[in-house]
């Protein structure tokens, strides 16, 4: 399928290469497509502007920096996102003052909600932001895949589509639907804990499993 990934950083490149390796037609979006000319994402991967990338994708993934996501998506263009599933995996983290980062949106709002408000006809699903890119693309490498991926969004059909795609693409098995897009607050505010888990365990190859 045609997949548009808004972003040119490490996450977009790893996701893009993994999806292209599975036979998908992937385009990465950036303000400077020339800087991805050396990127070897595979024969079925290409780079373009954010607008070209959003138009290309049957499904669009937001893998831009949290602080740049809104402007990257503005450049992508509202019409190209209309009616499409938009998987938002970005975290609103500000690294400008060093580590640990601070959250630019929190408590009473989230990046996921901000994106959904700005693009009301896009079907925004928050997912994948709670795991490192290594785990996003290879969940089985952690505890045999027996751990939890949180998702949220306003459209039940879009969430079902995303969980089905993540199962097919990467083998994700255990999803926990936290409800409407306002659950993105908790999913994003989990990041300070996730960063401490990384520090404590010495690896980003980690995740949590919710049990009852
Ligand atoms: N690292 C992980 O394992 C991990 C896990 C979960 C979620 N995430 C999230 O994934 C996202 C991508 O992370 P990353 O480390 O690959 O990249 P990053 O360094 O956080 O962001 C780079 C991307 O953001 C875009 N960008 C930055 N400022 C912008 C602005 N003002 N306007 C438009 N675009 C802007 C850049 O676009 P240009 O190419 O145009 O410069 C580039 O594509 C982040 O939101 C991060 O929180 C990361």
Structure write-up:
This protein has helices spanning 10-21, 50-56, 69-76, 78-81, 111-118, 133-137, 156-170, 184-189, 191-201; strands spanning 2-6, 25-29, 45-48, 59-62, 85-88, 93-94, 102-103, 123-127, 149-153, 175-177. The mean pLDDT is 97. The strands form 2 sheets. An 8-stranded mixed sheet has the order 3-2-1-4-5-8-9-10, with helices on both faces. It contains 9 helices and 10 strands. The relative contact order is 0.14. Helix 7 links the parallel strand 9 and strand 10 (175-177). It is an alpha/beta fold.
The major pleated sheet works out as: 8 strands, mixed
- Name the poorly predicted regions: none
Q: From the alpha-carbon coordinates, what is the Rg to the nearest angstrom? A: 16 Å
**Main structural class:** alpha/beta
End-to-end Cα distance, whole Å, is 37 Å
What is the helix content?
Answer: 25-40%
Instruction: Give helix and strand order, one letter per element, not per position.
Output: EHEEHEHHEEEHEHEHEHH
- Count of DSSP E strands? 10
Bound molecules: NADP nicotinamide-adenine-dinucleotide phosphate
Query: Any idea what the shape is?
Result: globular
* Proportion of residues in β-strands: 15-25%
Whole-number mean pLDDT: 97
How are the strands of the biggest sheet laid out side by side?
A: 3-2-1-4-5-8-9-10
DSSP helical segment count: 9
């Amino acid at each position: 399928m045609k997949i548009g990934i808004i972003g040119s950083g490490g996450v977009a490149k790893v996701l893009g290469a993994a999806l292209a390796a599975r036979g998908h037609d992937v385009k990465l979006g950036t303000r400077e497509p020339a800087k991805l000319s050396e990127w070897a994402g595979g024969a079925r991967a290409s780079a373009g502007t954010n607008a070209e990338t959003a138009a290309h994708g049957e499904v669009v993934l937001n893998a831009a920096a949290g602080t740049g996501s809104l402007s990257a998506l503005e450049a992508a263009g509202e019409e190209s996102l209309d009616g499409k599933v938009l998987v938002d995996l970005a975290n609103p983290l500000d690294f400008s003052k060093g580590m640990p980062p601070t959250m630019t949106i929190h408590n009473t709002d989230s990046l996921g909600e901000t994106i959904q408000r700005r693009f009301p006809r896009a079907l925004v699903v928050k997912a994948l932001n709670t795991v490192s890119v290594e785990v996003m693309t290879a969940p089985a490498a952690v505890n045999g895949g027996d751990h939890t991926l949180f998702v949220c969004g306003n459209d039940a059909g879009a969430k079902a589509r995303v969980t089905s795609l993540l199962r097919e693409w990467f083998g994700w098995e255990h999803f926990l639907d936290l409800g409407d897009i306002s659950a993105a607050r908790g999913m994003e505010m989990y990041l300070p804990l996730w960063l401490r888990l990384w520090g404590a365990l010495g690896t980003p190859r980690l995740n949590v499993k919710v049990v009852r």
